[in-house]
Amino acid sequence: MADGLRCWEPVSWTKARVDDEFWGPRQRVNRERTLPAQWRQCKDTGRVDAFRVGWRPGAEPVPHIFWDSDVAKWLEAASYSLAIHPDPTLQARVDELVDLVVSAQQPDGYLNAYYTVVEPEKRWTNLRDCHELYCAGHLIEAAVAHQQATGSRKLLEALCRYADYIATVFGPEPGKKRGYCGHEEIELALVRLYRATGEARYLRLSEYFVRERGRQPHYFDSEARARGEDPQHYWARTYAYCQAHKPVIEQDEVVGHAVRAMYLYSAMADLAAELNDEHLLAACERLWDDLALRKLYITGGIGPSHHNEGFTWAYDLPNTTAYAETCAAIGLVLWAHRMLQLRCDGRYADAMERALYNGVLSGVSLDGERFFYVNPLASNGDHHRQEWFDCACCPPNLARMIASLGGYAYARGSDGVAVHLYLGGEVGTRLADDTSLRLIQRTRYPWEGSVALTVEPDRPTEFTLRLRIPGWCRRHTLRVNGEPLRACVADGYACVRRTWQAGDRVEVEFDMPVEQVVAHPSVAQDSGRVALQRGPVVYCLEGVDHPGGVHRLALPPDARLRPRFDPGLLGGLVVIEGQAMALDSRVWDRALYLPADAVRSSPVILRAIPYFAWDNREPGDMAVWLWRG
Amino acid sequence: MADGLRCWEPVSWTKARVDDEFWGPRQRVNRERTLPAQWRQCKDTGRVDAFRVGWRPGAEPVPHIFWDSDVAKWLEAASYSLAIHPDPTLQARVDELVDLVVSAQQPDGYLNAYYTVVEPEKRWTNLRDCHELYCAGHLIEAAVAHQQATGSRKLLEALCRYADYIATVFGPEPGKKRGYCGHEEIELALVRLYRATGEARYLRLSEYFVRERGRQPHYFDSEARARGEDPQHYWARTYAYCQAHKPVIEQDEVVGHAVRAMYLYSAMADLAAELNDEHLLAACERLWDDLALRKLYITGGIGPSHHNEGFTWAYDLPNTTAYAETCAAIGLVLWAHRMLQLRCDGRYADAMERALYNGVLSGVSLDGERFFYVNPLASNGDHHRQEWFDCACCPPNLARMIASLGGYAYARGSDGVAVHLYLGGEVGTRLADDTSLRLIQRTRYPWEGSVALTVEPDRPTEFTLRLRIPGWCRRHTLRVNGEPLRACVADGYACVRRTWQAGDRVEVEFDMPVEQVVAHPSVAQDSGRVALQRGPVVYCLEGVDHPGGVHRLALPPDARLRPRFDPGLLGGLVVIEGQAMALDSRVWDRALYLPADAVRSSPVILRAIPYFAWDNREPGDMAVWLWRG
Hints:
Two copies of one chain form a homodimer.
Chain A: E1 9-10, E2 16-18, H1 23-44, H2 67-84, H3 88-103, H4 113-117, H5 127-130, H6 132-150, H7 154-169, H8 186-197, H9 200-212, H10 219-226, H11 258-275, H12 278-294, H13 326-342, H14 346-360, E3 378-379, H15 394-403, E4 410-413, E5 416-419, E6 425-430, E7 436-443, E8 450-457, E9 461-468, E10 476-480, E11 483-484, E12 488-490, E13 493-500, E14 504-510, E15 514-519, E16 529-534, E17 537-542, E18 553-555, E19 561-566, E20 573-583, E21 593-595, E22 601-610, E23 622-623, E24 625-628
Parallel strand pairs in A: 5-9, 18-24
Antiparallel strand pairs in A: 1-4, 2-6, 3-23, 4-5, 6-7, 7-8, 8-14, 9-13, 10-11, 10-14, 12-13, 15-16, 16-17, 16-24, 17-22, 17-23, 18-20, 19-20, 20-22
Helix pairs in contact in A: 1-2, 1-15, 2-3, 2-6, 2-15, 6-7, 6-8, 8-9, 8-11, 9-11, 11-12, 11-13, 13-14
């Protein structure tokens, strides 16, 4: 059991099998379609072969500074997948790739395909912009996942050598560079490396990177001067872009590039846990409130602006122009999951679930081969998933999230087990008293609110089973072995403490009506509007279901809305149907503005589908927020 | 009287005095505050002294490529002002400036402060980006205005020499460059020069610039190659940015940088009139419909995007992030006014008026010394007027528009006179039969809908007086010498034909209730919302009047709204008052999203002020579009 502030240790993805009708097929598509397609992309674009470090000036393609990270995330995703579902073809690709990556390592331990061959003289000269430590971080995460999935230590040892070399270059000691990466990632990766190896030096290096960030004199200033540049001419204008505008302990607003922010805050939460650092925890909680109460899309998307791929100001949540990068929603899951390790508090799990079922899952097509980088909440019909991107961070990030999903569902604490996510499947863990425990979960979540858990300790033992009561749920019932139970709900978790016997059965029923949700009145872009949500799933309207266009539909406040499972639609999902009003378009033939009393509307059938499933049929317009009228 | 398609010749600003209680004080502030303040800015920033062409490498400030245009627009504005109100101090500054500008002319006629001294070897090497002909155009407009205002031909002759030199450089003839400017302006300026001098070669040069635009092989391609650049690497990515993506005659969507577009379309309308070119007229009408029916803010602002300072797609009219550059709204007035010369059609006058009273006038503070470059329709409180800008196109553009306003109000045609705008004052013109006519207009427009016109021909004569019936007006009455008259209304103008005697009196009464206006349902950003308009004036709510914040106010569909003239507020204006509903904010303390049925609202007093007058009191949030609820 973890010490200190890390009260709730997640049950590893290696121990949590997912096999329900919602996520099961998605993990299969991830394995059968997404991973092979992404492998081909990494091969075809030269990302894999870049690790041959055979590039010479004039050759095409020229490796790019962050290609390593794409390959590393694919390798991490493939490792997760192998752990939950053996696959010889995938295993062979992974083995080949591991050999190739390790072969690129330099005698001093350095491992970066770009700087080894394209600009070797510029190694460590532009941490601010060039993602060098970020790439190292993703390779470290891949190595940890690979070792945990396969048992092979080959890649892990190479990355330990690289991390050890990095520790000779960076740190507070005299003679070392006092640098850190402009794109956070290595910080959380080093905590993973510490946990996988037990080597405290990796935790110390992570702590150094996090604590040094934003201190004066500013490393990015001196680094820019060393390159002969004026630090004032920083293209992003402010170090808030990379959360380096002040020491992290003093930060209280989520700012800048959203993915960077999430990765930093994830590392801060990890360090708060490992170092028992209440100040880091307090900073995380301040930042969390700023995000969750002022800067979070209803889809779990974050970072509204294309300009900085990130945050702007409080309550600025435009819909059509939302950036809401897929990686940022994934980053929110990573951070929320780490906050849950510090506090078993439903608000973190609510945000994690909100992102997973909406702004994360929207990132991939149902066929698993096309991806959103940007996830707007409204579209005029010109936004579609693509097979790949020049900057391809999102696709393999999705692949690793879906493959490792089981690892986000359960945690064990000093007095028992917590269930954060409702996924059908099975998990095995060991309680604080060394009892071995299996939990079998059966549910049609998120389409139905019934969850049945079978508790299988290897001997009768007393512990608390914490069952998350989702924030969206206004009424739930709980039964143990068929008997109704009124359990106390603390911080969003129903706590059932008893001596559990093998075969004990817990049933939870969450009321899951269609909810009309409104946004805080300071969200100007949503005022006068309503979104439809049922359970954790946020809905949208698509043009293909509403030929007159979705932006002219209004939902009367007393609209009767009914959920219906449609097995033939988009792989089977619950649609919401009812009656809306559509503005009469004829009066608009020769007008852009009219007196309100000149406008008429007539009833139409409304059909909303889950937001995550949009843009899988005919291209068209889309809206999450409907106006009321 | 004009020939051909130019059926309605505007009565010059030199002949139209404005002295009502709305525009009179604004012209005075323009003269007493704005012009002196802008002169100081042009002096202090080095814009004026740049014409000394004494800059040497290393000296600061370095003249900028479009500084000439700022000074030229100031000179044009000052000339207009001198014509309507003599002012010895201003006259002295103008004289001094004219001498200075003329002194900068090179022996070959070239007149550009930047290229003469900073990069003389690059003259005419980058028409696409460097505004060289644009600056020439503004100097030509200044010269025409200066000659017409003062009678002095000094500047006009210098600019004729420059234009003659330009004609030796550019044109379809062998040996000349087949170029044209990336930023349109010289095209309309050359038509003005032609009209002022009668020299057809200036019309031909304008025609050449307009017809050559967008033709293949593309001049900007070859010009880029000549600079050693790859034309594919054009920073703006598409020649649609400067309306050079295809020949103008084929264009049917307003695209790209909004100011450039307006200046081009203005020139196209001018050329359609002068050349009797139905194809150019048809292109103008197609483009007009695209703008007026799909891309026009209710304020008359145009060009929603900061990205290209211009147009995006149909119905994309975001409020908070609206760019709606002041110069673009002014450009719309210029274009609309030229379309009115082709067709006396109220839709052009409606757009001209919409822009004037809203998106143009918002560009300047009530004290005349601060300016908006960007005119959003909603603000979180962080948008404020500034005294000046590095790119200072808007302030002097406002100054010239306000000083020359009288020139937009009246036109004469073959059968009489048209009144496009209701401004108190007096105008003199000569009818087709050579009758000399004075019109005296008395009105409290836009605050009241009553207009009284006294008709003073120097002898009794029959002609048609066309009185615009504004598109916003649903009911009007007309009297001639006290007798009610039902005049036929054609294309938005009431036509009163009779033999007019000196002293005949026409009274029009426009019903001017508060209107709740809605936008076309395809304008996603306004759906479910309503704007308040009374007469031509669009209203907004400001935070200073609504301490709880304007974005949480909802207007019930049956809200009773009353106009009230408040003489003490912001120089005296009509406010709109009534009752709105404000969302209860207490339930939102710890939530960003809530079920709609958890939210309550309570009545509050609403006070709307004219949009043009916002940001003249305490800084705060602002909204034009209110939600209905």
